[in-house]
Write a structure and sequence with these properties.
Layout lengths: L2 H23 L2 H24 L7 H20 L5 H30 L4 H4 L3 H30 L13 H21 L3 H23 L7 H23 L2 H24 L4 H6 L27 H10 L2 E6 L1 H6 L2 H13 L3 E6 L9 H8 L7 E3 H4 L8 E5 L8 H4 L18 E6 L19 E5 L2 H18 L1
Bound molecules: NADP nicotinamide-adenine-dinucleotide phosphate (NAP).
Length: 481
C-alpha cells in the first residue's frame, strides 16, 4: 500500500467514526461515547493529514497546534456551562475564518502562478476550484463576523435585542449584489491591480455581510442563528476541502453543515417560526407588554411569596409533581438538589416528571445535560408536547428558574415579542411554585403574568439554596417519624 492509499483509507475510517459518533450523539446514554468516537476520528484525520508529503514546513503548524491546544485546555477549564452558547458562537467563528484563510491563500497561489485573468488561468475543472474559492471566502467571512456579533450579544457585551433600521433589507440585498460584482471582476479582470482591488472589496464585503446579517436577529431567536452559523461553518469547511482536495474535510464539513441545518429547522419548529421569519422579521424588537393571562385577559394580580416550610407542606400532600427547569437552574447549578427533592417526593408516594422545553436554558439540550449530570433517570424527562396534555392533572408544577418557556403571553398576547413560541403550560397545574431570586425578567426581557396568577406562589432566593431548604424539611420529617 502506498502513502496515498494509506491516507485515503485512514480518511474513510475517520469519516465512518464521525458518522457513527454523530448517530450516537442523538441519544443521551450513548452521547459521551459518540463524542469520544468523533474526537478519535478527528485525531486520525489530523495525524494522517500531517503525514501527507504536501506539508513542507512544520514550524507554523506546530505553533498553531500549541496555541490551539492551550486555548482548548483553557476553554475546558474555565468556560462555564452557562457560557456554552457564547463558546459555540466563537468556535463557529474560528471555523469560518479558518476556511476563509484557506480560500484566500489559494487565491494568492493561483494569481502568483498565472499572471493573467483568473478565468483564463483556470480552464475546465479548475474553474470549479475558482468558484469554490470565492464561495469559501463568502461563507467563511459571513460565518466569522456573524458569529462574533452573536458572541457579543450572548455574552451581553451589547444589547441582545435586534438592531433594526429603515431600508435594512435593501442594504443587505445591495451588499450581496456588490459582493457578487466584486467577485466577478476579481475573476475576469486581466490587470493584477484591478484583480487585487476587486478581491479585497470582495473579502471586506463578505465580512460586512456577516455583521449586517445577524444585526436584525435577537432575543429568543439567538439559538436559531447560532445553529445556522454552525451549519455555515460546516459548509465553509466543506468548500475549503474541495479547494485543497482533502476528502475528510469535505465529509466533516458536509456532516456539520447538514446536521446544523437539521438542528436549525428543529429549533424553528420548537419556536413555531419559519426560518425566513427568524432571519428577516426582526422579531423580539417590540416593546415588552405582557399583561394578558392564559385566556388573553389582563392580569392585575400581585406576586404571592411562599416560604420553604409552606412549599414543603404543599409538596408533601402532592401526588403528581412536575419540575420545569430553565436557565435559572443552570445559573444556580441546582440540578443535584432537584434530583434529591425528586427522590424524596417519590419516597413520599408522588409520581415525578421533568418537563423539558426545547429552548430552555441557553443551548439546545441544556436541561438534558444538567439533569443527566445529576443522574436524573432519563425516563423521567418528558418533552414539551408530551407533558402539556398532562398538565391539568398535575398537583404541583415547580418552575426552577424558567421564565420565557412558561410565559403564557407566548400563546395569547399577539404584541408579545415571544408570541408564537410554544410553552410548557405550567399555569394549568393546580399549584405553581416558581423559584427565582426576584423580579428578574427572562432572556427576552419581558414580564411574565404566570407569576401573578391566583394559583402561583413565588419561592424567592437562589434556586439551589431554596431547594436545599425544602429538602431539609423533608429530611427533618423523615428523621422525626
Ligand atoms: P429565562 O427566560 O432566561 O429565565 C431565567 C430566569 O431564571 C430569570 O427570570 C431569572 O429570574 C431566573 N434565575 C436566574 N438565576 C437564578 C438563580 N440563581 N436562582 C433562581 N432563579 C434564577 O429562561 P428559560 O425560561 O429557560 O428560557 C430560555 C430563554 O433563552 C428563551 O427565551 C430562549 O429562546 C432563549 N435562548 C435559548 C437558547 C437555547 O438554545 N436553549 C439559546 C439562547 C437563548 P431572577 O433574576 O428573578 O432570579
Amino acid at each position: 500500500m502506498n502513502l496515498a492509499d494509506f491516507i485515503n483509507l485512514s480518511y474513510i475510517v475517520a469519516s465512518i467514526l464521525f458518522i457513527i459518533g454523530l448517530k450516537m450523539l442523538g441519544k443521551q446514554p450513548t452521547a459521551r461515547r459518540g463524542n469520544l468516537l468523533s474526537a478519535v476520528g478527528m485525531l486520525i484525520a489530523l495525524v494522517v493529514t500531517l503525514l501527507d508529503r504536501q506539508v513542507v514546513n512544520f514550524t507554523w503548524i506546530t505553533v498553531g497546534l500549541a496555541v490551539g491546544t492551550l486555548l482548548g485546555i483553557a476553554c475546558h477549564r474555565y468556560a462555564k456551562m452557562t457560557s456554552m452558547p457564547e463558546l459555540v458562537a466563537l468556535l463557529n467563528g474560528f471555523g469560518g475564518i479558518a476556511s476563509l484563510l484557506v480560500g484566500w491563500a489559494e487565491f494568492i497561489k493561483i494569481r502568483n502562478i498565472h499572471h493573467h485573468a483568473l478565468a483564463t488561468a483556470l480552464p475546465g475543472s479548475e474553474t470549479f476550484t475558482g468558484i469554490v474559492i470565492f464561495l469559501t471566502i463568502l461563507i467563511g467571512g459571513i460565518t466569522f463576523t456573524g458569529s462574533l456579533y452573536a458572541f457579543a450579544k450572548l455574552a451581553e457585551w451589547m444589547s441582545g435585542k435586534p438592531t433594526l433600521f429603515r431600508g435594512q433589507h435593501q442594504l443587505n440585498a445591495a451588499l450581496f449584489v456588490l459582493t457578487c460584482i466584486a467577485g466577478a471582476v476579481a475573476v475576469f479582470a486581466s490587470s493584477p491591480a484591478v484583480t487585487l482591488a476587486a478581491f479585497t472589496t470582495y473579502l471586506v464585503l463578505s465580512l460586512v455581510i456577516g455583521w449586517t446579517f445577524v444585526m436584525p436577529i435577537g432575543g429568543g431567536d439567538m439559538p436559531v442563528v447560532i445553529s445556522l452559523l454552525n451549519s455555515l461553518s460546516g459548509l465553509a469547511a466543506c468548500a475549503a476541502g474541495f479547494i485543497i482536495g482533502n476528502n475528510v474535510l469535505i465529509v466533516a464539513g458536509c456532516l456539520v453543515g447538514t446536521s446544523g441545518v437539521i438542528l436549525t429547522l428543529i429549533m424553528c419548529k420548537a419556536m413555531n417560526r419559519t426560518m425566513t421569519n427568524v432571519l428577516f422579521s426582526g422579531f423580539g424588537a417590540a416593546p415588552a407588554t405582557a399583561t394578558a393571562d392564559a385566556s388573553g385577559a389582563i392580569v392585575q394580580g400581585e406576586l404571592k411569596p411562599i416560604s420553604a416550610e409552606d412549599t414543603f407542606a404543599v409538596l408533601e400532600a402532592a401526588r403528581q409533581v412536575v419540575f420545569i427547569p430553565g436557565y435559572g437552574m443552570a445559573v444556580s447549578q441546582a440540578q443535584h438538589q432537584v434530583r434529591e427533592l425528586a427522590e424524596l417526593l417519590e419516597q413520599n408516594g408522588a409520581e415525578v416528571r421533568f418537563a423539558i422545553h426545547p429552548v430552555a436554558g441557553r443551548m439546545p439540550g441544556h436541561m438534558n445535560v444538567l439533569l443527566a449530570e445529576a443522574n436524573v433517570p432519563y425516563e423521567q424527562l418528558v418533552e414539551m408536547d408530551a407533558i402539556n396534555p398532562l398538565m391539568p392533572g398535575m398537583d404541583v408544577a415547580i418552575v426552577i428558574g424558567a421564565n420565557d418557556v412558561v410565559n403564557p403571553a407566548a400563546t395569547t398576547d399577539r404584541a408579545s415579542p415571544i408570541f408564537g413560541m410554544p410553552i410548557i403550560k405550567a399555569h394549568e397545574a393546580r399549584t405553581v411554585i416558581c423559584l427565582k431570586r426576584g423580579k428578574g425578567a427572562g432572556f427576552s426581557g419581558i414580564e411574565n403574568q404566570l407569576f401573578l396568577l391566583p394559583n402561583s406562589r413565588m419561592l424567592y432566593g437562589d434556586a439551589k439554596s431554596t431547594l436545599q431548604s425544602v429538602v431539609s424539611e423533608f429530611k427533618a420529617l423523615a428523621a422525626a417519624s
